[in-house]
Each structure stands twice: as C-alpha cells, then as structure tokens.
C-alpha cells in the first residue's frame, strides 16, 4: 500500500497511541494555557472512547512552577529549575485531572528518570504498571522526574522520553504535537514560506541540521528532537504523526481522515524490542573505532564486529558493557554489547579470530560484538 493507505489504516486501527505535548504548545508567557489542556483532554477522550489506549507524555511542569514563583522568586540554575518543577508538577496534574474528569476519564501520573528504564528489572516493572493502568482504562500522564534527575535534561527532552515509552507500552502509533503545523522542507527560521511536508517516507534522506538548524531554543529540542524521536519510532516499526497542538481539534480531525500534519513512515524491517531497549536505555562505556572494511561488513552485509576490524578502543570498560561503534571520522554507526574488556580488546586489535587464543588463551569469543547484540543506525 502507499503511504496514504498506510496512514488511513493505522489511524483507523491503532490500539495504543503515545501522544507527546511540549511546553511550546501548552504554555504562554503566563504559564499553562488551561484552554489548551482542556482541548487536548477532550480530543484524547474521544480517541479513548473508540477503544484506543492513550499514553500522554506532557511537559509543562517547570513553566507552571515558574509562573507560580514569578512574583516572589528568581529561577537561576538547575536546582531552582528542579524546585520549580516540584511546585509546578502537582498543579499541572490538577489541571489534567479536572480536564479529563469532565469527560469521565481516569488519569494517572507517572514520573520517570533514565535509571527507571536503564535497569531491565525496573523497565519490566514500569511495563507492568502501564499494563495495569491501561487495563483499567486509565490515561497515564508521563513526565520526566525533573526534581530528582541528577543531570540536566536526563532524557535529553520529552521527545526522547516519548520515543522510549513506545517500546515500554508497545504502542503502534506515535503522535507528536508541536507549535508548527507539521514538518517543513526548509528551516522556517531561514526560508520565507517554507514548503510543508505531507509525508516523510525515509528519514535517512533528510539533512536534519539544514532543515531544523540543529537543536533549537523552543522547549529543549524543537523540530530536530521530534524528528530524532520519529527515527527511533520508525526503527520499532511504528509510524509518527507530527501535528499542530494549537490547531482546533487537530487530533480528532486527523483521526477522522483529514490530511493534517506530517506522516512519517516506519521502517520496513523493525528491530527487536530487546535491541531497542539495549541501545537506548543504557549509557555506553566506550567507543570501538573500526576500519572501512568493518563498516561495510556491518552496514551492508549484516555481519558481527570482529577484532580484526577494530583500529582503536576508547574508554575502560568491562566485558558485557554497552559501547558505541564509530568510523574513523567519528561518525557513530551503532551500539552493542562488547564480549571483551577494553584492556583485552586493545591486545588483539586487528587480529584474526583464529589467532585470539594465542594472546588471550582459549574460550574467547570470535566476535567483539555479536550481531544479535548490535543495533546499527543508532539515533544519537
């Protein structure tokens, strides 16, 4: 089927949807726009009424807290921002609770940090919690737990968090609400009247730096991070719909067949959810720099990474650590679990697998990273 048929089919049959809304949509200079919250809740309630599970990822806690503190306190650094989030989060949830209750919907708050998804045990606990809430027909409202995150923007932004949740809840559609009407072919900050895109069939064909000007000051990521999140979703075989969050009834109209926003097609071959979790929920401990032959073997022939193709090891890591795979020019092409410690790998750089035992003894893995533990084209 073509992309229009795919879009119609997915919108008509989606069983579980992750919807992300950012600060640029929710807030004004005076804090959260209650009318936007009520409109969003009403649209999601209609989607929910047709039997679709909805998971909402919402920013806005810091902006809400900042507005409360406007008359008395100056917010300077990250500790102040985290404190503002603590003040704003409960108020933001109050707005959502009231808005959803108007439509007879039960909402639930979930705050996450990267550590919650990094641990496989905690990841599965989170999955089970979401499963119970969705079984009860509740609408989970998710935000990063800014108050206890130990690094600024631990997930990077809520676009990144939403893309990881697609894997947690096993969604089959991702809707990202933005302050723009969709994705443009050119950077709207530099080109007058940029051409809107109805569809992006292959995100690999786009130069995101040119289109988006890199990361922007709108929220924490702008369109750049939205397209990176869409690339992650596409790897899971999940399409993305980027819509205006301020256009009246945009979600309802799109699900009714109106051609709003930009449809981003999924990849034809989805990666396993285990590989996705491995690649995006951990913190790489080092880098394996490989030669051109290894790049070709990995990217074009789907091979494992052998010590023979590695030219440099960066970092000090233990066996089983998550590491990045890089070209000599510094381009990250993949991530995977390494079968060797950094120290041992340095001893066998460039060596054939048959010769490894002469240096390290018997019972050595022939692969530095087995293909089953490697994700190529990782989105960083």
TrEMBL record:
Residue numbers binding ATP = 20, 220-226
- Residue ranges the record marks as coiled coil: none
At the top level of its lineage, which domain of life is listed?
Bacteria
Protein EC:
2.7.2.11
Q: Which Pfam families match?
A: AA_kinase, PUA
Reaction(s) catalysed (UniProt annotation): L-glutamate + ATP = L-glutamyl 5-phosphate + ADP
Please give the GO cellular component terms listed in this UniProt entry: cytosol
Cite a single GO BP annotation: L-proline biosynthetic process
State a single Gene Ontology molecular function.
RNA binding
Q: Which UniProt keywords apply?
A: Amino-acid biosynthesis, ATP-binding, Cytoplasm, Kinase, Nucleotide-binding, Proline biosynthesis, Transferase
Pathway-wise, it operates in: Amino-acid biosynthesis; L-proline biosynthesis; L-glutamate 5-semialdehyde from L-glutamate: step 1/2
| Major subcellular site | cytoplasm
List residues binding substrate. 59, 146, 158
Domain (PUA) spans 286-369
* Localization (cell): Cytoplasm
Family designation = Belongs to the glutamate 5-kinase family.
Q: Briefly state the protein's biological role.
A: Catalyzes the transfer of a phosphate group to glutamate to form L-glutamate 5-phosphate.
Name-wise, this protein is: Glutamate 5-kinase
Q: Which organism is it from?
A: Desulfovibrio subterraneus
Q: What is the lineage of its organism?
A: Bacteria, Pseudomonadati, Thermodesulfobacteriota, Desulfovibrionia, Desulfovibrionales
